[in-house]
Write a structure and sequence with these properties.
The complex is a heterodimer of chains A (about 325) and B (about 350). Chain A has about 325 residues and is α/β, with parallel strands linked by helices. Chain A folds into two domains: about 1-125 and about 270-290, Rossmann fold (3-Layer(aba) Sandwich), CATH 3.40.50.2300; about 130-270 and about 305-310, 3-Layer(aba) Sandwich (Rossmann fold), CATH 3.40.50.2300. Chain A contains eleven helices and twelve strands. The longest helix of chain A has 17 residues, at about 1-20. By secondary structure, chain B is mainly alpha-helical. Chain B is about 75% helix and about 5% strand. Chain B has a two-stranded antiparallel sheet. In chain B, a hairpin with a 2-residue loop joins strand 4 and strand 5. In chain B, helix 3 packs parallel to helix 8 and helix 9 (about 190-200) crosses helix 11. Classes of the chains: A alpha/beta (about 325), B mainly alpha (about 350). The interface of A and B includes residues 161, 189, 202, 203 and 253 of A. Chain A: It is found in: Cell envelope.
Chain lengths: ~325, ~350
């Protein structure tokens, strides 16, 4: 009881500090995986920003890539009596018990970025992006850009067997279906890293007549594209002009390349998963509307026309 | 003259394996040996093999000496990440190039010293001692880069990764010069023999008056320096320090290069040049797979199959068998001696000699 009062006064205090117009009656616990990548860091930053904007008191727990830490954090959120819990689950299995505990305590749980293998009634909704759709958007951009001209595409895949690699490949191939002018001539894994992206692109260039047979590069993430762009430059070609470059993720560095005219397009995997989650929560608290079981985030396409320099400045500070 | 002949005999299996792989790739991809000048530097698949193989080749130099002392250094991949991160952070801060390089190489030496002290003074088993830094190192690198890829624009630092000297890419120049220099220093002095003695039997070496701990520490410090150089190259190559991926699993490739080079993991006789050829064999396989156009699911299987084949060819047992099958001639026993089995017999003789002088 004491704890609850203390918490309530803390939230009121927070609301006064941030001067938000929103109702400041929510305390939300957020169990983050850890700092595995720049994208993850940006997600944490944006979640905190979104909470602050809405006057939500966010309790943040970093699990350091361990599920047992996440379970501990969720249990402590339940004990503190928070109004809702956000989880970015590190693995898909082993969540049934702790999610049941949250359900018994009548605390809604929202999954961010990844889903879990648990009965669907144990969580309120999952906010994730559609990986197949991302590949599809990238493919559509390429189809529209080459506009019927014959075009040989080389593909830099993500880590072999990982779900982003499988789905982003599938989506891209779906978009290319029926457009026989576009052909994927080479496809290799670049392990999602810059070094491997550069090395594999070097071999693509050698294997395809010094790059003269290649008209476009599709990379499953921006980092590989950044590496590949250097390889294209070192081969004496102009990335973005001689070879079109399209990739996925929208990390800040690709906007720098786009501003320099060396990359053409990127599809955003938004780190703002918490915004839609907080919106769903607010609607639920207001009149009990249940959100759909899956909230798909927008896969926005950025091209050189979207003022890449400004986007870079805006994304730079997010911790990517 | 006989020294050169012995070296040639020692390197024969590695050279044959490398040539066989290069020819195999050439069958698959006819343009493999084509080399042209582009923007004032040599350009071609063969140059790519030497360029991409630079980090493993450099690591293999240090790893050879560590393995010769009967140790192993698992931390080199993580040390690469640390040194790359230090260099990038220093460059971003705006330090002059010399400061950046000295700091990065200095940290590499320090990491090597840490490993060396654990192994030589505290007598911790090398695999455990270096495991500490292998696990912790990547965390340290992440702390330095704050989890992001730290990019920089210093042309001097970038030159190390993608510049060129005498038409050769800078990484190739670095590993060639560094590798040959270390090999010469070790072989033209007594250092090589003393390291071998320490590796074959540390107690016997100590009894014969060799300062074994000093040589052990020296080997790990050199390994740290090699890792720092390799870290600088991979960081400069992509113009950014990627703490999560820089040098990931490269310690295993470096150990493999040493083994493919015909050096025994039990310590003793070693050849740095053979390890360098081993590193090139591994990279040739990697590049060949990329050029072949196989689906990526096959990459690791093909690589493993080729490595097993090379190790089989080098196996002493197999060459003994071959000696039975082959008609008797002077060439057969000579080849058997050039591999690991023959090396350890030679080391035993060296040690006996040392023990005699001690008593």
């Amino acid at each position: 009881m004491m704890l609850k009062t203390a918490l309530a006064s803390a939230t009121v205090l927070a609301a006064c500090l941030f001067g938000s117009a929103h109702a400041a009656d929510m305390t939300v616990g957020f169990s983050q995986i850890g700092s595995e990548s720049g994208w993850r860091a940006a997600e944490t930053t944006l979640t905190k920003q979104q909470a602050e904007k809405r006057g939500i008191d966010l309790k943040f727990a970093d699990a350091q890539q361990k599920q047992e830490n996440q379970i501990k954090a969720v249990r402590s959120f339940i004990a503190q009596g928070v109004d809702a819990i956000l989880i970015a689950p590190v693995v898909a299995t082993g969540w049934d018990e702790v999610l049941t505990e949250a359900k018994d305590a009548k605390i809604p749980v929202i999954l961010l970025d990844r889903t879990v293998d648990a009965p669907k009634d144990l969580y309120m909704t999952a906010v994730t992006s559609d990986l197949v759709h991302e590949g599809n958007v990238a493919g559509k951009w390429l189809v529209d850009t080459v506009a019927g001209k014959p075009c040989n595409v080389v593909e830099l895949q993500g880590t072999t067997g990982s779900s982003p690699a499988i789905d982003r490949k599938k989506g891209f191939e779906q978009a290319l279906k029926g457009h026989d002018n576009l052909k994927i001539v080479r496809s290799q894994t670049g392990d999602f890293t810059r070094t491997k992206g550069k090395e594999v692109m070097e071999s693509f260039l050698k294997a395809e007549g010094g790059g003269k047979n290649i008209c476009a590069l599709y990379a499953h993430n921006d980092d590989m594209a950044v590496g590949a762009i250097q390889a294209i430059k070192e081969a004496g070609l102009k990335p973005g002009k001689d070879i079109l470059v399209v990739s996925i993720d929208a990390v800040p560095d690709i906007f720098q390349a786009m501003a320099a005219g060396e990359a053409n397009a990127t599809v955003e995997l938004t780190p703002n998963m918490a915004g839609p989650a907080f919106d769903a929560l607010a609607a639920y608290k207001k009149d009990g509307t249940m959100p759909p079981k899956w909230i798909q985030t927008e896969s926005k396409l950025y091209t050189q026309k979207d003022d890449p320099k400004a986007v870079y400045e805006q994304k730079k500070g997010l911790g990517y | 003259m006989s020294g050169a002949k012995a070296l040639g005999r020692r390197l024969l299996p590695q050279c044959v394996a490398l040539a066989a792989i290069l020819i195999l790739i050439w069958f698959n991809f006819p343009g493999f040996f084509a080399i042209e000048m582009q923007n004032g530097r040599l350009y071609g698949s063969l140059i790519d093999v030497m360029n991409r193989g630079a980090p493993v080749a450099l690591l293999a130099v240090g790893m050879t000496l560590v393995i010769a002392t009967r140790g192993i250094d698992l931390s080199v991949g993580a040390v690469m990440a640390i040194c790359g991160a230090v260099a990038a952070a220093s460059s971003v801060r705006g330090d002059p190039l010399a400061v950046t390089l000295v700091m990065s190489l200095g940290i590499g030496l320090l990491c090597g010293l840490w490993n060396g002290v654990l192994v030589a003074i505290l007598n911790i088993q090398p695999i455990v001692a270096t495991l500490v830094l292998m696990v912790a190192g990547r965390g340290i690198a992440q702390l330095i880069t704050e989890g992001a890829i730290l990019t920089f624009n210093d042309p001097g630092l970038i030159f190390i990764g993608s510049g060129s000297l005498f038409g050769l890419p800078m990484p190739v120049v670095l590993w060639l010069v560094f590798g040959i220099a270390v090999a010469l220093i070790i072989r033209r002095t007594a250092l090589g023999l003393l390291i071998e003695a320490t590796g074959v039997n540390r107690r016997a070496a100590t009894l014969s008056g060799i300062q074994a701990p000093a040589f052990l520490i020296m080997a790990y410090v050199l390994s740290g320096l090699c890792a720092a150089l390799a870290g600088l190259i991979v960081t400069a190559d992509i113009r950014g320090a990627d703490a999560n991926n820089a040098g990931l699993w490269l310690e295993l490739d470096a150990i493999l290069a040493v083994v493919v080079g015909g050096n025994s993991l039990l310590g003793g006789r070693f050849s740095i040049i053979a390890s360098l050829i081993g590193a090139m064999i591994i990279q040739a396989v990697n590049t060949g797979i990329l050029l072949s156009g196989f689906p990526p699911e096959f990459n690791l299987i093909i690589k493993a199959a080729i490595i097993v084949l090379i190790l089989l060819i080098q196996s002493p047992r197999l060459s003994h068998l071959a000696a039975f099958v082959r008609p008797a001639g002077p060439a057969a026993p000579a080849q058997g001696k050039s591999v690991a089995g023959g090396a350890s017999a030679g080391d035993a003789r060296d040690i006996k000699k040392l023990e005699r002088t001690a008593s």
